[in-house]
Design goal:
CATH topology of the largest domain in chain B: Butyryl-CoA Dehydrogenase, subunit A, domain 3
Order of helices and strands of chain B: HHHHHEEEEEEEEHHHHHH
Largest sheet of chain A: 3 strands, antiparallel
Radius of gyration of chain B: 21 Å
Structural class of chain B: alpha+beta
CATH architecture of the largest domain in chain B: Up-down Bundle
Strand content of chain B: 5-15%
Radius of gyration of chain A: 19 Å
Structural class of chain A: mainly alpha
CATH topology of the largest domain in chain A: Butyryl-CoA Dehydrogenase, subunit A, domain 3
Order of helices and strands of chain A: HHHHHHEEEHEEHHHHH
Number of strands of chain B: 8
Number of helices of chain B: 11
Helix content of chain B: 40-55%
Oligomer: heterodimer
Shape of chain A: globular
Distance between the termini of chain A: 12 Å
Strand order of the largest sheet of chain B: 1-4-5-8
Largest sheet of chain B: 4 strands, mixed
């Protein structure tokens, strides 16, 4: 039993974090917002790091890594509010196709030339898919009304929910960082507003929510990767706590920014809108809560201290 | 990350489970906050020690089993799952013990750890003073040197277990005229030393769970000081780290409470508010999250890491989780919430537990202090006031 994420597993995610921090700052979001939302050069950078093939077996030219690795990287994508459809394509649709034995196009996936799209009935839209455009409040999301039949496969839903949870954690972390930085520089009553306990305690609460969302996320990723019978329960748990943490972080961050936070000029809104989008995608709060309810209150799952990892 | 127990860990779990099944008292003990219940719990500590279960992580030389933190967590899971009694010596085994392990001399380890694991000496803590609560650096009680003794004068308060315990530990000002964190020393003392007066304080449940301690020229040998003279603050912070960080509240306790809450909900489902249903699911989620986090912290420590200011996040989370779970139970109980005994004659443990849960966000550094620590040390927000 080991809940530690091995340092060597963190290295790739840290490399992705460094790369995105250096190439995908808020100025990029503004440029994409003013233009066509997508940038082949950004996508190519992700391809050069091997990320579309992260979950593709090595026999097909991919990196052959697992869902925990993907979740670690999805969190980094959330942290920078990545616009390119890496997570939904490479970490949701691709492993789902592989699980169904659809391996014909994997070389093109690894090369970044083919970006699989998976439409699930629970969403009612497809991200970065073909079809009539559907407007999202998130200016960098590209939603389309699905033209093909939508799947109702629970594995696809779990992959989507897990990777949304991972991005939500990254989004929440980034919004907390933005609020902290603003609270340090904005002065009122002769001191930084971050010196006031009312601000400190609000932001400390976000830290608490995140501290106890992260291990749920990693545990869910590992459970789904292991093919554990209870994986769906843990994915729902992760989706709920990540969504709650992201909403809390967003509302706390806008409050700390004051009226500045309500403007289009401050970067915060990009992250906040992505959090709203992903919080409802791949299963609403009610959907995931119902799965937990059925397992825990409905006695479908063993609970109690002897069953921590059941 | 590997989410399966080794065969050795599974065998250990089976061993713990079998011992507890044969030894846990069939009926709950009286509360350890009353004198009779205290002595019942001391008896239980000695029974645990007879099976060599006093503190499984300690070296065998001090009455432990030399096990690692994962095995400790397994022990705790089985312990709380079996409905075993509260640990009356928790101040000793979970707080002072690890501190002595880190800062004590070989003589101090031999002298204090062995009887602690054996349940022979029960420990009280003596941090707070009338003028030093959340602001612990405002401690005024003095312990000045007189030859090979310290002479203690002053007053401590809210001293947990001090109504009945054998020994106490706390911070005292050993340097005359010193201020704040400086000039403090960490001293252990026999509560029966001449000059110590205990005045039990009746808590809101009616029992004397803590006490005031008055020190009137109390002579304590210098060898009872832990670490160097004047280094007490850092030693106390290490103790507080254990308290907030890992050991004091193992996840098994909350997971067991969450399971009982689920069972209570099933009994009251027909009359439960819709919000109760989510609160019950949430109790399971949060207790599980706390367990995963504890396993991650344990793994980090085993890999050579340390617990830092994130211990404050832990303390906020478990104390508020505990209060929320018990509040949910009180609401489910409805008109029965106020009854000290339920229809079957058993003690209303949810009521007792709710009262106790109200102390969690206050003791071990109030949650307001923990939020300040979080904001200043983890988030880097500006510090204000005297630090």
């Amino acid at each position: 039993m080991d809940m530690l994420i091995a340092p060597e597993r963190l290295e790739l995610a840290e490399a992705v974090r460094d790369y995105l921090a250096g190439t995908h700052g808020p100025e990029v979001l503004r440029r994409l917002d003013a233009g066509p939302n997508r940038d082949p050069a950004i996508w190519q950078g992700l391809v050069d790091m091997g990320l579309p093939g992260l979950l593709v077996p090595e026999t097909h030219g991919g990196l052959g890594m697992g869902l925990l690795d993907a979740a670690l990287i999805a969190r980094e994508c959330g942290r920078v509010c990545l616009a390119e459809p890496l997570v939904e394509s490479a970490f949701v649709a691709t492993p789902w196709l592989i699980a169904q034995g659809q391996t014909a196009n994997l070389a093109a996936v690894v090369a970044g030339e083919y970006r699989p799209v998976a439409a699930h009935a629970i969403n009612g839209w497809v991200a970065d898919g073909e079809g009539e455009s559907v407007a999202s409040i998130d200016p960098l999301r590209r939603l389309a009304a699905p033209v093909e039949a939508q799947s109702d496969d629970p594995l696809l839903l779990d992959l989507g929910a897990l990777m949304s949870a991972a991005q939500l954690v990254g989004l929440a972390e980034a919004m907390l960082d933005q609020a902290v930085e603003y609270a340090k520089i904005r002065t009122q009553f002769g001191q930084p507003v971050g010196a006031f306990q009312a601000i400190k305690h609000k932001l400390a609460d976000v830290s608490v929510a995140l501290e106890f969302a992260r291990p749920v996320l990693w545990r869910a990723a590992q459970a789904l990767d292991d093919g554990a019978e209870s994986a769906a329960l843990h994915v729902s748990h992760a989706k709920l706590v990540a969504t709650d943490a992201a909403y809390l972080s967003a509302e706390s961050a806008i409050q700390v920014h004051g009226a500045m936070g309500y403007t289009y000029e401050v970067d915060l809104h990009f992250w906040m809108k992505r959090a709203w989008a992903l919080g409802g995608a791949w299963g609403s709060r009610a959907f995931h809560l119902a799965r937990i309810d059925a397992a825990v209150i409905g006695a479908a799952h063993p609970i109690g201290p002897e069953n921590t990892f059941a | 990350m590997h989410l399966a127990y080794t065969p050795q860990q599974q065998a250990f779990r089976a061993e713990v489970r079998a011992w507890l099944a044969a030894n846990v008292p069939p009926a709950p003990l009286l509360t350890l906050e009353c004198e009779e219940g205290y002595h019942q719990h001391v008896g239980w500590e000695r029974q645990l020690a007879s099976g060599n279960w006093g503190m499984v992580t300690w070296p065998e030389a001090y009455g432990g089993r030399g096990l690692d933190l994962i095995e400790w967590l397994i022990f705790e899971e089985e312990y709380w799952g079996a409905g075993a009694p509260l640990r009356v010596n928790q101040n000793g085994i979970f707080l002072l013990g690890p501190t002595i392990m880190e800062y004590g001399t070989p003589e101090q380890k031999e002298r204090f750890l062995t009887p602690m694991a054996a349940g022979e000496k029960i420990w009280a803590q003596a941090w707070s003073e009338p003028g030093a609560g959340s602001d612990m650096a405002a401690i005024k009680t003095t312990a000045f040197r007189d030859g090979d003794h310290y002479v203690i004068n002053g007053q401590k308060t809210w001293s947990s277990r001090a109504s009945f315990a054998d020994w106490g530990f706390g911070l005292f000002r050993t340097e005359e005229g010193s201020q704040r964190h400086k000039g403090l020393s960490f001293i252990l003392f026999d509560l029966d030393t001449p000059g110590v007066t205990r005045r039990p304080i009746r808590q809101l449940h009616g029992h004397p769970g803590f006490a005031e301690l008055f020190f009137d020229d109390v002579r304590v040998p210098v060898e009872n000081r832990l670490a160097g003279e004047g280094e007490g603050w850092n030693v106390a912070m290490a103790t507080a780290g254990f308290e907030r960080g890992l050991m004091l509240r193992s996840p098994g306790r909350f997971q067991a409470a969450a399971r009982r809450l689920v069972e209570l909900f099933r009994q009251h489902e027909h009359a439960a508010a819709p919000s109760a249903r989510e609160a019950v699911a949430r109790a399971w989620m949060d207790a599980q999250a706390y367990a995963y986090n504890t396993y991650a912290v344990a793994a980090k420590i085993m890999a050579g890491g340390k617990i830092g200011a994130e211990a404050s996040l832990n303390k906020i989370f478990w104390s508020e989780l505990d209060r929320t779970m018990h509040r949910t139970a009180m609401q489910l109980l409805g008109a029965a919430a106020e009854l000290r005994h339920l229809a079957d004659g058993s003690i209303n443990e949810w009521l007792e537990g709710y009262m106790f849960s109200l102390s969690g966000p206050i003791y071990a550094g109030s949650n307001e202090i923990q939020r300040n620590i979080t904001a200043e040390r983890l988030l880097g927000l500006p510090r204000v006031g005297a630090g």
